[in-house]
UniProtKB/TrEMBL annotation:
It comes from Streptococcus pacificus. The lineage of its organism: Bacteria, Bacillati, Bacillota, Bacilli, Lactobacillales. PANTHER family: DNA POLYMERASE III SUBUNIT EPSILON. One of its GO terms (molecular function) is helicase activity. CDD domains: DEDDh (cd06127). Pfam families: DEAD, Helicase_C_2, RNase_T. This is 3'-5' exonuclease DinG. Residues 237-520 form the Helicase ATP-binding domain. A motif (DEAH box) lies at residues 444-447. The gene is dinG. Residues 636-810 form the Helicase C-terminal domain.
C-alpha cells in the first residue's frame, strides 16, 4: 500500500453527535484535507438530526435545536462528504468512533467508505510518552495547538490536523533506526495507523542517528556538556537578581539565617512557615559556600523532589550552569538490560507493545531514565515491574556504561547538588555510611522526617500475595517435607488473617507468630524471602492491616521496633545539617530535635506573617462524622461539595479516609459533578498535573496531598478540609508514641496528637496559598473545631496563619464568594 501511495492525501475528520453511543446521529461535520503537509481544503456543515438535543450536548457543543432545524439533512450532504473522503486516508482523534459513525451514515445513503484509518490518539501516546492525558483540549494546552472553540467539529478537526502535522514533524526529527524498531510493533496500533510511521521512514536517509548513542539497536540521548559553572555571589540578593526573583524580605531573612549558621558545628533547626521561598533561600545561600562539599537536599515526597528539580534546579542550571542530580531508589529507573530482553520477544498484548514503542521514543529524550516521567505506566504495572531497575548491573552488560542507575551512582559524587526524598535518604544512609560524608545536608520539612525515620524502622509484606504463592506451590509436585511446611504456613497465615477480620486483632502476641517463625527458619526456597526477613529479623512488634482497592482487598503483615531510632547515628561528624520545619516545637514539652535524637542543636525562628490573601471558615453547623451512620454523613458532605463546586473555582478536597473519599467520589459521579480522585483516576502526581492543567475544577485527595504538594497554578482556589487529620489511635506508631510520652510524664493527646494534627492542618492550608497574587479560601467541615474543648487551640493556631471566621454553611458560601471575586 505504501508503494502505491507514497504521498497520500489525509482527511482529518471530526464529528459532533447526539451522544457517544452506537445509535448516535451526526449533528456537525468538520473536515481538513492535507496533502504534502499543507492544508489544501476545509469543509464544515451542520446536520439536522430530526431529534432534540439533550442539555449536555447543547452545553458541550454550543449547538441548539433551532440552529440545527435550518441545517441540511445528512442525505443532502452525503455525496459531497464521500467525494471529499474517497481518495484520502481517514484521520481522527479517536478514529474508531468518527470513522464507524460516518461510514454507517454514508452506507445508508448508498456510499461505502473503505479508506484506510489513522488514529491520532494512539500516535500521540507513542510519540509523546510523557503526557498524562491525550484528550484534544488537554493536548491543545500541552502542545500549543489552536483550539479556539473546543467541541465544534471544524475547530476540533483543525486542531487535530495541527496535531497530525506536529506528529509527522516529530517523527522526521527522530532517527530512522528507532522508527524502524517502533514500526515492528505497528500491528498493535489501531487500523492502518502505522502507515504514517512507514511513510516517514520511506522519506528518511539511514545516516541520521549521529546525535544519539547506539547500544544493541537501542538509541539513547547523548548527554549535553554543561558550560563552565558560574560563581555565585555570597550575597543572597545578588543571586536573586540574576535569577529575576522578586524581592521578598522574609525570604532574605531566612537566607541570612542559613548563612549565619553555616560555620556552626551543631545541627541548625530553623522554623519557617510555608510559602516564603525556602528552596531558593537555602540553595542560593549555600552553593557559594560549599568549598568542595556537596549540597544534599532531602524532601518528604518524590512529587516534591521532582518539583524542585524541574523548577528551582532547572532555573539554577540554566542561569549558573550548575547541575543537580535527583536520586531515588533504583526501582524508579528503567533497567535497559531488562527492557532490551522484552524487545526480543513477541508479545500479543497491544498495551505492552505500545509501551515498547513509547519507551523507544522516551529513550531519545530522557536524561534520567526515571520511569516517573512516563505518565501512563499505571495501566499495566506488571510490565513496568519487569523492566524497573533492581540496583544491580553486570559489568559485562553492553548497557553497563549507559545504564541509568549506574550513571547516577558513578557521577553523583561530581554533582554540586543532590536532591532526594526522606525515605531514600534513610534507606541509603543506613547501609552506606559514606553517603552523608562531605555533605551539607538540608532536611526540608523536617517534621515529616521523624515519621520517615519511624517508617524506615518498619517492614511490610503482602500476606494476600504470599498466600497466593503458597497456594500455587501446593498445586505442584514437591517433596513431602516442603509440602508440610507450605501447608503449615498457609494454615498459620490464614488463621491470622481470619482473626484480624473477625476479631479486629491488629497487634499480634508473640505466641501467635512462633510457629510461623519456626516454619520460615526451615523454609528452603527464596520466593518468600521478604516474609523470612520480617519474621527472623530484629523486629519486636508485629501487626496486621488491610487496604481496600476498587476491586479487591489486600492484607499486610507489618513489623516494627518498640524503641525510637536516633538519626544522629546516621551522620558523619563533618556533616553540616540544617533541619527546616514549619514548626520546631510539637508542643511545649516535645520538640523536633528530641524526637530525632539530636543532642547539640540551635533553634532559630522566623516571624509569622498573617496571610490576608487566605481566609479560613469553620462550619459551625457541620455534621459530625458517625461511623454508625456513614451514609448520611457522606450524603451531607456531597451536598456541601456540590454547592461549593458551583462557584466554578478550582477546589481541593482533603480526606483522612480513602474509603470515604472513594464513596464521596461515587456520589459526585451520580450528580454528574466532574472531578478527579486520587487512586481512582491515577497517582497523586498525575492527577495533580491534570488538575493544574484545568482538566477538572475539583480534586479529591488524601495522604500525600496533606504533606508536600504545592498548588501554585491557580489564581483562586478553595481548599476543603472534610475532617481533622488526627492520627489513628490504633496505629502501632501512635501507641508507641503514647507509651513513650507517658514514660516521660507527658500527655499523649495534648503534647503530641493534637499539636501534630494542627501542624498537618496548617501545612495543608499553606499549600494552597504560595504566591502573593493567589487568593485561597479554606472551609473546614469538621464541627469538632467548634464543639470540642481542644477546638479553641486549633482555631487559635490557625488564626496565627490566616484570618479565621466561624459561620453557618450558607453564610460561608456568601462570604466566600465576596472574598474570591
Amino acid at each position: 500500500m505504501i508503494e502505491e501511495m507514497k504521498k497520500p492525501k489525509y482527511a482529518i475528520v471530526d464529528l459532533e453527535a447526539t451522544s457517544a453511543g452506537i445509535n448516535a446521529s451526526i449533528i456537525q461535520v468538520g473536515i481538513v484535507i492535507i496533502q504534502d503537509d499543507h492544508i489544501i481544503k476545509t469543509y464544515e456543515t451542520d446536520i439536522n438530526p430530526h431529534e432534540k438535543l439533550d442539555d449536555h450536548i447543547i452545553s458541550l457543543t454550543g449547538l441548539t435545536d433551532k440552529r440545527l432545524s435550518k441545517a441540511p439533512e445528512f442525505s443532502q450532504v452525503a455525496k459531497e462528504i464521500f467525494d471529499l473522503l474517497e481518495d484520502c486516508v481517514f484521520v481522527a482523534h479517536n478514529v474508531k468512533f468518527d470513522a464507524n459513525l460516518l461510514a454507517e451514515h454514508l452506507f445508508f445513503e448508498g456510499y461505502e467508505l473503505m479508506t484506510p484509518r489513522v488514529d491520532t490518539v494512539e500516535l500521540t501516546q507513542v510519540f509523546y510518552p510523557t503526557l498524562e492525558k491525550y484528550s484534544l483540549p488537554i493536548l491543545a494546552k500541552s502542545l500549543s495547538l489552536n483550539l479556539a472553540n473546543a467541541h465544534t467539529a471544524i475547530s476540533d478537526a483543525k486542531a487535530t490536523a495541527e496535531l497530525f502535522l506536529k506528529l509527522r514533524n516529530k517523527m522526521r526529527q527522530m532517527p530512522k533506526r528507532t522508527l524502524e524498531t517502533i514500526v515492528t510493533y505497528g500491528d498493535s496500533l489501531l487500523f492502518e495507523t502505522q502507515m504514517v510511521i512507514q511513510e516517514i521512514i520511506a522519506e528518511k536517509t539511514s545516516e541520521d542517528d549521529k546525535d544519539y548513542i547506539r547500544v544493541a539497536d537501542i538509541l539513547l540521548k547523548k548527554e549535553k556538556a554543561l558550560a563552565k559553572p558560574k560563581q555565585l555571589s555570597r550575597d543572597f540578593e545578588t543571586n536573586c537578581h540574576y535569577l529575576g526573583l522578586e524581592d521578598r524580605p522574609i525570604q532574605s531573612q531566612f537566607a541570612h539565617l542559613i548563612a549565619e549558621r553555616f560555620d556552626d558545628s551543631s545541627t541548625s533547626f530553623i522554623e519557617a512557615q510555608s510559602g516564603i521561598g525556602k528552596t531558593y533561600g537555602y540553595l542560593l545561600t549555600l552553593l557559594p559556600r560549599l568549598e568542595g562539599k556537596q549540597l544534599l537536599i532531602s524532601v518528604p515526597t518524590k512529587v516534591l523532589q521532582d518539583q524542585i528539580v524541574d523548577n528551582e534546579g532547572q532555573k539554577i542550571k540554566e542561569t549558573f550552569h550548575i547541575d543537580c542530580q535527583s536520586i531515588k531508589s533504583p526501582q524508579n529507573y528503567l533497567k535497559l538490560d531488562a527492557f532490551y530482553q522484552t524487545l526480543q520477544r513477541q508479545d500479543h498484548n497491544r498495551l505492552i507493545n505500545r509501551y515498547k514503542m513509547q519507551l523507544l521514543v522516551w529513550l531519545l529524550e530522557t536524561e534520567t531514565g526515571d520511569l516517573d516521567e512516563v505518565k501512563q505506566k499505571q495501566r499495566f504495572e506488571a510490565y513496568f515491574d519487569e523492566i524497573k531497575h533492581d540496583g544491580f548491573i553486570d559489568a559485562s552488560s553492553p548497557f553497563f556504561e549507559v545504564d541509568f542507575w549506574h550513571k547516577i551512582e558513578s557521577k553523583q559524587a561530581k554533582k554540586p547538588i543532590l536532591i532526594t526524598n526522606h525515605a531514600y535518604l534513610l534507606a541509603r544512609s543506613a547501609h552506606d555510611k559514606s553517603f552523608l560524608e562531605n555533605k551539607v545536608l538540608v532536611i526540608d520539612e523536617a517534621q515529616k522526617f521523624f515519621l520517615a525515620l519511624e517508617r524506615a524502622s518498619q517492614k511490610k509484606v503482602n500476606v494476600t500475595k504470599i498466600l497466593q504463592i503458597i497456594h500455587k506451590k501446593l498445586q505442584q509436585e514437591s517433596p513431602l517435607i516442603l509440602q508440610r511446611l507450605l501447608e503449615s504456613l498457609q494454615f498459620e497465615l490464614s488463621h491470622l488473617v481470619s482473626d484480624f477480620y473477625q476479631k479486629k486483632r491488629m497487634l499480634l502476641e508473640e505466641d501467635s507468630i512462633t510457629q510461623l517463625r519456626q516454619d520460615m527458619s526451615e523454609y528452603p526456597d527464596n520466593d518468600l524471602d521478604d516474609l523470612k526477613q520480617l519474621l527472623l529479623g530484629s523486629y519486636t512488634a508485629f501487626w496486621l492491616e488491610s487496604e481496600q482497592f476498587e476491586t479487591h482487598r489486600e492484607t499486610y503483615l507489618r513489623a516494627g521496633e518498640t524503641d525510637f531510632r536516633r538519626f544522629q547515628q546516621y551522620l558523619s561528624p563533618q556533616t553540616k545539617t540544617y533541619a527546616i520545619s514549619a514548626t520546631l516545637s510539637i508542643s511545649k514539652k516535645v520538640n523536633l530535635a528530641d524526637l530525632l535524637g539530636f543532642d547539640e542543636v540551635t533553634f532559630d525562628y522566623l516571624p509569622l506573617d498573617i496571610n490576608n490573601n487566605q481566609n479560613i471558615w469553620l462550619d459551625k453547623a457541620a455534621d459530625p462524622y458517625e461511623k454508625s451512620d456513614l451514609a448520611s454523613y457522606e450524603a451531607l458532605l456531597v451536598e456541601k461539595l456540590i454547592a461549593l463546586s458551583q462557584k466554578n473555582i478550582p477546589m481541593l478536597v482533603l480526606f483522612t479516609s480513602k474509603q470515604v473519599m472513594l464513596s464521596v467520589s461515587e456520589r459526585l459521579d451520580e450528580h454528574h459533578i466532574k472531578h478527579l480522585t486520587q487512586y481512582k483516576n491515577g497517582l497523586a502526581s498525575n492527577i495533580k498535573r491534570r488538575f493544574d492543567n484545568g482538566e477538572s475544577k475539583v480534586l479529591l485527595g488524601t495522604g500525600s496531598f496533606w504533606e508536600g504538594v504545592d498548588f501554585t497554578s491557580q489564581d483562586k482556589i478553595i481548599a476543603v478540609i472534610t475532617r481533622l487529620p488526627f492520627d489513628n489511635p490504633e496505629d502501632f506508631f501512635t501507641k508507641k508514641m503514647a507509651s513513650y510520652l507517658r514514660e516521660h510524664k507527658k500527655n499523649p493527646f495534648y503534647d503530641y496528637t493534637l499539636p501534630v494534627a494542627i501542624l498537618k492542618l496548617k501545612q495543608a492550608i499553606g499549600r494552597t496559598n504560595r504566591r502573593k497574587t493567589q487568593r485561597s479560601a479554606v472551609v473546614i467541615l469538621d464541627n469538632r473545631v467548634v464543639t470540642k474543648r481542644y477546638g479553641k487551640q486549633i482555631s487559635k493556631a490557625l488564626a496565627k496563619q490566616s484570618p479565621v471566621r466561624e459561620e453557618n454553611f450558607e453564610e460561608i458560601l456568601s462570604e466566600l464568594s465576596d472574598f474570591l471575586l
